[in-house]
Amino acid sequence: MNKSELIDALAERAELTKAQAGKALDAMLEVITATLTAGEQVALIGFGTFKQALRAAREGRNPATGAKLKIAAAKLPKFSAGAALKAAVSGKKPAAKKPAAAKKATAKPAAKKPAAKKK
């Protein structure tokens, strides 16, 4: 799934226009990026955690010449999947579906019994 397909699915699921869904997705990505850049983490319970990981400086080799290279330390984004996402992907638990709030209730409310008369 690419970004435009994700926007289409988000618009349908959340009952938004594609423009609104696109703005919401872009805003969410900007917030996650800004938070990670600031060195903080974003935890979405059940889905996963985005955090900044540090990769230490190391020595590498040029594959063509075999010459040694110094590779600088780097800060990288890292995602760790949450328990609910892992369970859904592995097939142990069904993925969340569209809420049933859109359906109209057809059941009638229960009739109340008349109060007992005191003698």
Describe the structure.
The chain has 119 residues and is α+β, with helices and mostly antiparallel strands. It folds into two domains: 1-40; 41-95, HU Protein, Chain A (Irregular), CATH 4.10.520. It has helices spanning 3-14, 18-37, 83-90; strands at 42-44, 48-55, 58-61, 68-71, 74-81. The strands form two sheets. It has a three-stranded antiparallel β-sheet. Strands 3-4 form a two-stranded antiparallel sheet. α1 crosses α2.
Short key terms for the protein model shown above:
single chain, 119 residues, alpha+beta, HU Protein, Chain A, 2 domains, three-stranded antiparallel beta sheet, two-stranded antiparallel ribbon
What is the compact description of this entry?
With about 120 residues, this protein is an alpha+beta fold. The protein contains three helices and five strands; from the N terminus they run ααβββββα. The chain is elongated, with a radius of gyration of 26 Å.
